[in-house]
């Protein structure tokens, strides 16, 4: 809880901070990277910095947390998501002090606030930081070296990598989780990208990569069978919940990767649950795991698949042409829904589900989470 005086000052200044927080975030990152350029080269995603999504996510998360404090509702789902991402890329407790220094300086420069207001927002920051540090303390950390033992071309721009630890057993993991891959680049930078597990065996992990950006392209072109990769321990909070109620998996594009892993888990355990699998893609040839989706659903006791293509090749049902539309699918209100894909898809699917009375909705997004924070 915020102290009474800080709560009063934060509530009074929240509209002004909210209106300027995008500028504050950009100022913050510029300051921090000027003093610590290694963070941009070896920790933060350079692409997300360039397109502004990282600043947008930071801005939104701070505003959401401050609003929650004032309303007495801590946004735990958002905090858990951030904590898992932080641990996956190797954020340490000491780095929160670095962030605090430059964030407070940015707020002071953009808004020219009084020392009292700055102290109130500092209190907000440390309440959020201490909560994250506490969560991260109990999550699996560390990186291990893996050897690529197989790779498969799923589509023209998607490759699946099967990797086995060079030493020791495969770490504990759950369908729906992701790993971070540490990739050295030609300019000497080491960038980190996260990829959902698309499958697993007792002695190997499987993840699938769409060619999109400098890191994914590097993996496509320079990670042959026999090469080694440095991977984080599997993490992520969007995993299959136990129960006997209906389950919905809805994805778009490469967002099918965690969904296919969770679907395979239900098949492997002989689940009797009603399962609704929905996927949207450009066409049949750009759809990763197209055959696997049909095969897995066919093995379920009560499974159905609904596939939408924006521009299908050949004959295709008119009602399944275009973007994913959950409105025409019978989805019971007690369904547990899992979503994965780009932000516009997540927003549209989530709105349709809530409109249909489905409230148990979990989602994974690739890149900064501008959905929950926005």
From TrEMBL:
This is nitric oxide dioxygenase. Keywords: Dioxygenase, Heme, Iron, Metal-binding, NAD, Oxidoreductase, Oxygen transport, Transport. Residues 141-241 form the FAD-binding FR-type domain. It comes from Lentzea fradiae. Signal peptide: none annotated. InterPro entries: FAD-bd_FR_type (IPR017927), FNR_nucleotide-bd (IPR039261), Globin (IPR000971), Globin-like_sf (IPR009050), Globin/Proto (IPR012292), OxRdtase_FAD/NAD-bd (IPR001433), Riboflavin_synthase-like_b-brl (IPR017938). GO terms for molecular function: FAD binding; heme binding; metal ion binding; nitric oxide dioxygenase NAD(P)H activity; oxygen binding; oxygen carrier activity. It holds the Pfam family Globin. Its EC number is 1.14.12.17. In the C-terminal section; belongs to the flavoprotein pyridine nucleotide cytochrome reductase family. Belongs to the globin family. PANTHER family: FLAVOHEMOPROTEIN. One of its GO terms (biological process) is nitric oxide catabolic process. Residues 1-137 form the Globin domain. It catalyses: 2 nitric oxide + NADH + 2 O2 = 2 nitrate + NAD(+) + H(+); 2 nitric oxide + NADPH + 2 O2 = 2 nitrate + NADP(+) + H(+).
């Amino acid at each position: 809880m915020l102290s009474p005086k800080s709560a009063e000052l934060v509530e009074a200044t929240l509209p002004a901070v909210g209106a300027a927080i995008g500028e504050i975030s950009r100022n913050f990152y510029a300051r921090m990277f000027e003093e610590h350029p290694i963070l941009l080269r070896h920790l933060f995603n350079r692409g997300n910095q360039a397109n502004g999504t990282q600043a947008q996510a930071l801005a939104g998360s701070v505003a959401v947390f401050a609003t929650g404090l004032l309303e007495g509702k801590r946004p735990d789902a958002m905090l858990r998501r951030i904590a898992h991402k932080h641990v996956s890329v190797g954020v340490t407790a000491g780095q929160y002090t670095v962030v605090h220094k430059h964030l407070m300086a940015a707020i002071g420069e953009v808004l020219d606030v009084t020392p009292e207001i700055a102290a109130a927002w500092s209190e907000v920051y440390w309440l959020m930081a201490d909560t994250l540090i506490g969560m991260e303390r109990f999550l699996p950390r560390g990186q291990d070296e893996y050897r690529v033992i197989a790779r498969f071309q799923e589509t023209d721009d998607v490759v699946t990598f099967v990797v086995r630890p060079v030493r020791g057993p495969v770490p504990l993991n759950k369908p729906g989780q992701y790993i971070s891959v540490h990739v050295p680049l030609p300019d000497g930078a080491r960038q980190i990208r996260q990829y959902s597990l698309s499958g697993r065996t007792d002695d190997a992990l499987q993840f699938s990569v769409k060619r999109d950006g400098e890191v994914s392209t590097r993996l496509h072109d320079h990670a042959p069978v026999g090469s080694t990769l440095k991977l984080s321990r599997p993490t992520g909070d969007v995993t299959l919940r136990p129960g006997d109620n209906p389950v919905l998996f809805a994805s778009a594009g490469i967002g099918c990767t965690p969904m296919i892993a969770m679907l395979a888990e239900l098949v492997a355990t002989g689940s009797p649950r009603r399962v609704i699998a929905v996927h949207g893609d450009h066409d049949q040839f750009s759809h990763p795991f197209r055959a696997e989706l049909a095969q897995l659903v066919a093995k379920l006791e009560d499974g159905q698949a609904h596939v939408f293509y924006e521009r299908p090749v050949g004959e295709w049902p008119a009602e399944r042409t275009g973007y994913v539309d959950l409105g025409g699918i019978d989805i019971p209100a007690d369904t547990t829904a899992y979503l994965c894909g780009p932000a516009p898809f997540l927003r549209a699917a989530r709105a349709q589900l809530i409109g249909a009375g489905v409230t148990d909705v979990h989602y994974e997004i690739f890149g900064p989470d501008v959905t929950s924070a926005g």
